[in-house]
Design goal:
Number of strands: 14
Structural class: alpha/beta
Number of helices: 9
Bound molecules: flavin mononucleotide, adenosine-5'-triphosphate
Helix content: 25-40%
CATH topology of the largest domain: Rossmann fold
Radius of gyration: 22 Å
Distance between the termini: 36 Å
CATH class of the largest domain: Alpha Beta
Number of domains: 2
Order of helices and strands: EEHEHHEHHEHEEEHHEEEEEEH
Shape: elongated
CATH architecture of the largest domain: 3-Layer(aba) Sandwich
């Protein structure tokens, strides 16, 4: 898979079939769209391409409305590679880009990426002030001669699946439901940093993770997690919150990795959230906390 960050500077030497969108999270709606793009690209003997953004458009259009991101770019690239996309364009979204008129945008796509076809969702909007829509795309596809695929809404129960819908699930702790809608389980990657070193004394050493502030964090509480370190997987119990029993001041994400004794300060780990175990509790003393931690650990062993 080729990854590029091109803002209409290059001209591709081959034809492409392009999926357009933000694709944060890579949910089942996005998957339908991306799989259809690959299918059509193969049928037409051209390359499949995901055209998306390096930064969320709202981070430029209206910073105060910019959401926390579900999937970091590295993980998104890895997933798209697994799915079988030929090219990914992670476009840096900036002020100049924001002001491209819809018709001009499609002209640029055609001139630079040799477009054979485009796939978008039913509600796709594009171009300056989001003024381009599916109706305009239909007109342009006839005028400019490219194939157009519109994907019908993918729903869960009566709700249309969207990145916003999934962000709400995550913020409210509904990890299992969010995971059912995502291509891969919700995860956080980062470096292990030093904590208060109190966990060790309780017999529950924890890996505190340095997390990216732009990434969405599940609701505070305790989660059953899967931890990846150096291509090996371990069970974990992860606490998100303020540790009110012992500290109450700093917000941390810390994981006790089961059956693991290595010193991993400074090393990168990936935590995948599997299910929510409970709320964070302010215990009367650390003995009560330790008793609960043993229960959490036994829960994880049974999974
Ligand atoms: C699985 C797990 C569950 C936890 N649950 C709670 C809790 O309910 N209440 C609380 O005050 N602290 C909780 N903690 C935080 C501990 O108090 C914390 O791990 C300990 O203070 C060690 O911190 P340190 O890593 O900074 O040394 C939990 C930690 C883990 C790993
Ligand atoms: N549930 C869905 N069914 C079909 N197509 C979808 C669905 N969700 C998104 N799409 C399409 O996938 C592409 C990328 O969607 P995009 O990430 O921009 O929006 P979204 O998933 O609805 O998230 P947001 O909540 O941020 O609007 C768009 O073309 C969009 O129309």
């Amino acid at each position: 898979m080729i990854v590029m960050e091109d803002k209409f500077n290059i001209v591709l030497p081959y034809k492409t079939y392009v999926a357009l969108g933000n694709f944060d999270g890579l949910h089942i709606g996005h998957m339908e769209l991306i799989n259809k793009t690959i299918e059509h690209a193969k049928k037409n003997n051209v390359k499949s391409m995901v055209y998306t953004f390096k930064n969320h458009p709202l981070s430029i259009i209206n910073r105060s409305l910019a959401p926390k991101i579900i999937l970091d770019n590295n993980t998104k690239i890895q997933c798209l590679n697994e799915i079988g996309i030929d090219l990914v364009n992670l476009v840096p979204f900036d002020y100049e880009y924001m002001n491209i008129e819809p018709r001009k945008f499609i002209e640029l796509l055609i001139n630079h990426y040799n477009i054979n076809g485009i796939t978008v969702g039913f509600n796709f909007k594009f171009g300056k002030k989001n003024s381009g829509n599916v109706k305009l795309l239909k007109e342009l596809s006839i005028e400019m001669g490219f194939e157009l695929n519109i994907i019908d809404p993918i729903k869960i129960d009566e709700d249309i699946v969207s990145s916003t819908y999934i962000r709400n699930l995550i913020s409210n702790g509904y990890i299992e439901k969010a995971n059912k809608l995502l291509y891969s389980e919700l995860s956080l990657s980062g470096k292990v940093i030093e904590g208060k070193k109190f966990g060790n004394k309780m017999g529950f050493p924890t890996a505190n993770i340095e997390f990216d502030q732009s990434i969405i964090i599940p609701k505070a509480g305790v989660y059953y997690t899967k931890v990846q370190y150096k291509n090996k997987f371990y069970k974990g119990i992860t606490n998100i919150g303020y540790s009110p029993t012992v500290d109450g001041k700093n917000f941390t994400i810390e994981t006790h990795i089961l059956d693991f004794q290595e010193n991993i300060y400074g090393k990168d780990i990936k935590i995948s959230f599997i299910s929510r175990i409970r709320d964070e509790i302010k215990f009367n003393n650390i003995y009560e906390l330790m008793e609960q931690l043993n229960k959490d650990k036994n829960f994880a062993y049974k999974q």
